[in-house]
Design a protein that fits this description.
Helix content is 39%, strand content 13%. Bound molecules: zinc ion. The site of zinc ion has 8 residues, from loops.
Length: 124
């Protein structure tokens, strides 16, 4: 079961970090679902892939300060843009999550206010 979302860049799936031959350019992270220590090729940064252990979709973190120049690449510019896009996408996802949490809070507050109003109407 290897359903890997690759958007035009060939990206190998995750591997168990304990068994894998980790290169300097690989990204090592923990699966948020099963906690397995995973390793993936740097080109997987920012992609949603399926955990090789539990099969759940996981978002590969983009290492802070990841410099493509360090990776000895020629096609750097396109990848740089790709990474920037993915990074922005991840930020947007986080903002959406924060806004959703805020919305839940507001709905709860609204619910309380509606109860108060309803009680007030009953009393008067
Ligand atoms: Zn997992």
């Amino acid at each position: 079961m290897q359903e890997t979302y690759t958007d035009e860049v060939e990206v190998p799936g995750t591997q168990n970090a304990e068994e894998a031959d980790i290169r300097d350019t690989d990204i090592v992270f923990d699966c948020p679902h099963c906690g397995k220590n995973l390793v993936i090729d740097y080109r997987g940064a920012g992609l949603q892939i399926n955990c090789s252990e539990c099969g759940e979709p996981v978002l590969v973190p983009i290492p802070d300060g990841m410099e493509l120049n360090d990776l000895d690449l020629d096609s750097g510019e396109i990848l740089k843009q790709l990474f920037a896009t993915r990074r922005n996408y991840q930020k947007a996802e986080l903002q959406i999550q924060a806004l959703k949490a805020k919305l839940v809070q507001l709905q709860e507050t609204l619910g309380v206010m509606q109860e108060v109003v309803a009680e007030g109407l009953v009393e008067s």
